[in-house]
Amino acid sequence: MEASTLVLGMIRSKAVDEKRVWIGTSQGNCTYEYDEAMPLEDFNQLHAANMRADERKDAVVICHSLPFFWARPFVNEYTCAPCPPVGYTPALAVGRAMAETDIYNKEFVKACNRMDEVWVPSKFSRDTMIASGMIESKIRIVPIAVNTTRYNPESNKPLQLPKGQLVFGRHRRPLLNEYLVDIPPSPPSPPPPPRTRDRFQLENKKAPTPQPPSPPSPSPPPQLRVEAEKFKSQSMISPQRNDHPSPPFVFISTFKWEKRKGWDRLIHAYVQEFSEQDNVELYIITKRFMAGSDFSGDIYNYSATHLGMLTQEQWSRGPTIYLITSHLEAEDYAQIYRASNSYVIPTRGEGWGMPITEAMSMGIPAIVTGWSGTADFVDDAVGYPLNYTLSEVPAGEPWWFLGARWADVDITHLRRVMRHVYDHPEEAAAKGRAARQLMVDKYSPDIVAKAIVAELDRVQTMLSDGTCNHCYNTQFVATPMQVFSLKAWHTVQDIWGAAKWRVGGLRNLTVIIVLVATAAILSLLYWFKPHRFYLLYSIFKIRVLLPMLVAARNTTQKSWNRNRKHNS
């Protein structure tokens, strides 16, 4: 999302000629398709930029992914489109990186030091990386843009509430049937452009290195799980009543379901501070991330273990909490922010915090941890920074966090701040207006695009003056022999991938023979006509190999489907 906002901001602000901007996909599967969460106009512009990609031209290449996906000279983890492209010497290779804990992983530091420059979004990231061993002269601060046009309170209507699954408390508004359980399905989206793939790298089938699973959270006793399921089914039809004449005060929080986001601290503080007597609602919009997806079960388990709430009666007498896990489009996010009074997230660490800036752009104040990347744009003038203490990252978290510390929010302070905002909505609204102005003045796409253009102009000036000692750096670029070895290995893997689908019969056998013969021809071409090798290999990848593999897979899948139907 950040990368697309950056690219679209540069294009639409006219800060850079659109024809000079090209992108490639990386990490996972390069065969992408239209995502309903993204406006079609945005997708079409990004798709056009992807089709313009041409590694024969000199370029400033910005690698926008985790550092172990950067190709300097090779990647540590599989990606279908290494960045920079393997064997390619850009005018400048830039890594886009950010720190979320007090120490930057040493393997990430090595990857950053192999890049020509590293652009970070915040002072926190810069200071943390330098303290962790990064070369200071390579770091530049370039903030992350927020789409202040899409997230504009004047152009969005409030979303009709309630929405989602009622987890705690009772309904305080009139209900619409389609809102009882999650979000109603969105209308059909326009047909996407034809699927495409990055033209530089084939879809290698090497799986990422598996990480040790997270330790399971403590499960409640069987009778508690039964009560939880009973409560979830009954709470959705609980009677609506609101003893207050005014609409409920709405807290909103959006995040991936992981411990780093501090959902446990949020539930703890909110449930302890408020009760069914308070005219308040908390909406949590979340999605799965590297863990299970039983979000409401996690909440019930936590409340039973840490808050002593074991029965349906206790849950129903708590403050109102809704959980939204279904698909939301970009305009839905803007509208639910418009219907909210305050954003809250007791995060343990952020590289930046795009959902926070989006909420602030919609004119609502943010209650957020006063540490890490968010400290660059959340202060007492536009929000409510939270007190915290640093603690060691526990086992079971992503490996790049291990050995570092992150922030645990002071629950007592969080309770006090949420109560203060609830009791003083006028003050919160005033801070929200100031937050909106801050986003427009410093972090709109036009402003950030100008900052990026200033960096590009700086590089251009150094190139013209001959003072850019780190431009066209070949120190960490793969040699032709290394490139050939990598491409040959990818070819062998693709041949093996086709061989695994041999159930399709003679057709697949023909594919394998053609692949082996083509690999032999390419090897001979490399030794005798290297320049023709690169051209023919690129054509072979896109025009020959991929359709063959897809055809082989489809044939096998049809055969398996027929056998399954016959057996059933």
TrEMBL record:
<dbReference type="Pfam" id="PF13692">
    <property type="entry name" value="Glyco_trans_1_4"/>
</dbReference>
<feature type="region of interest" description="Disordered">
    <location>
        <begin position="204"/>
        <end position="244"/>
    </location>
</feature>
<keyword id="KW-0812">Transmembrane</keyword>
<feature type="region of interest" description="Disordered">
    <location>
        <begin position="180"/>
        <end position="199"/>
    </location>
</feature>
<feature type="transmembrane region" description="Helical">
    <location>
        <begin position="509"/>
        <end position="528"/>
    </location>
</feature>
<feature type="compositionally biased region" description="Pro residues">
    <location>
        <begin position="209"/>
        <end position="223"/>
    </location>
</feature>
<feature type="compositionally biased region" description="Pro residues">
    <location>
        <begin position="184"/>
        <end position="194"/>
    </location>
</feature>
<protein>
    <recommendedName>
        <fullName>Glycosyl transferase family 1 domain-containing protein</fullName>
    </recommendedName>
</protein>
<feature type="transmembrane region" description="Helical">
    <location>
        <begin position="534"/>
        <end position="552"/>
    </location>
</feature>
<keyword id="KW-1133">Transmembrane helix</keyword>
<keyword id="KW-0472">Membrane</keyword>
